């Protein structure tokens, strides 16, 4: 796992953590990642993506939401998640700027974190979105679609398992869908493969070194 620096970050909804993993040399981009509703930034797919992206020249920040820092598993309401995320991403951008780095911002995460990234991407000035295990709908409730959140008009990659009970999104303009065969929502069968799918997309957009 890439070495990281933890920054305790105040937000409108409490203290969050920003774990920054630094590449060798000048970064090509800043990739900010959020965790799932009941998990943390040590999820296997997030760790794998962090390691690969750092090795390919990205500065990667993983954000732990205030409710998780406080030891709670039940997620905060969407508005609170978004507000905390925005505050931490802005700290990440400021820390990069202190070093003289003006970097393209890519936002993302897994599951709930991917939803937060999609909802806030445009307002943060992001250039792209990485969505791991995007929860297209609640299990067994396809009528409660969340597909609208993916329509950010920014380049987006969705990496989902074909056995994910939260579903797969339909084809969407500007959205690259990488389907992982045999994977469920946790992407634990081959987290490195899931990370590689995202990394190929990042490299295709010149945000990391191929």
Polypeptide structure, described:
The chain is an alpha/beta fold and 210 residues long. 30% of the residues lie in helices and 25% in strands. The chain has five helices and eight strands, in the order βββαβααβαβββα. It has helices at residues 44-55, 66-69, 78-98, 112-124, 191-204, and strands at 4-11, 14-21, 29-34, 58-64, 105-110, 128-132, 156-161, 175-180. The chain has an eight-stranded mixed β-sheet, sandwiched between helices. The longest helix is centred in the middle third of the chain and has 21 residues, at 78-98. 47% of the residues are buried.
Distance between the termini: 20 Å
Helix-strand makeup class: alpha/beta
Parts with pLDDT < 50 across at least 5 consecutive residues: none
Overall mean pLDDT stands at 97
How many strands in all? 8
For the largest beta-sheet, the strand count, sense and barrel status come to:
8 strands, mixed
**Strand residue percentage:** 15-25%
Topology:
Layout: E1 4-11, E2 14-21, E3 29-34, H1 44-55, E4 58-64, H2 66-69, H3 78-98, E5 105-110, H4 112-124, E6 128-132, E7 156-161, E8 175-180, H5 191-204
Parallel strand pairs: 3-4, 3-5, 5-6, 6-7, 7-8
Antiparallel strand pairs: 1-2, 2-4
Helix pairs in contact: 1-5, 3-4
Which labels suit this protein?
single chain; 210 residues; alpha/beta; globular
Q: In summary, what is this structure?
A:
The chain has helices at 44-55, 66-69, 78-98, 112-124, 191-204, and strands at 4-11, 14-21, 29-34, 58-64, 105-110, 128-132, 156-161, 175-180.
């Amino acid at each position: 796992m890439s070495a990281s620096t933890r920054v305790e970050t105040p937000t409108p909804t409490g203290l969050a953590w920003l774990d920054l993993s630094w590449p060798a040399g000048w970064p090509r981009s800043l990739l900010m990642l959020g965790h799932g509703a009941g998990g943390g930034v040590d999820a296997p797919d997030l760790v794998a993506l962090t390691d690969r992206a750092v090795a390919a020249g990205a500065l990667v920040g993983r954000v732990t939401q205030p409710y998780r820092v406080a030891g709670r598993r039940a997620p905060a309401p969407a508005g609170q998640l978004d507000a905390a995320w925005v505050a931490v991403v802005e700290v990440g951008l400021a820390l990069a700027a202190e070093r003289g780095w003006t970097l393209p911002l890519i936002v993302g995460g897994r599951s709930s974190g991917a939803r937060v990234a999609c909802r806030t991407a445009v307002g943060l000035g992001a250039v792209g979105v990485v969505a791991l295990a995007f929860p297209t709908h609640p299990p067994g409730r396809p009528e409660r679609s969340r597909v609208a959140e993916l329509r950010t008009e920014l380049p987006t990659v969705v990496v989902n398992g074909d056995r994910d009970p939260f579903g797969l999104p339909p084809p969407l303009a500007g959205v690259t869908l990488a389907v992982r065969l045999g994977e469920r929502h946790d992407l634990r069968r081959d987290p490195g493969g899931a990370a590689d799918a995202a990394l190929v997309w990042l490299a295709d957009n010149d945000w990391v070194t191929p």
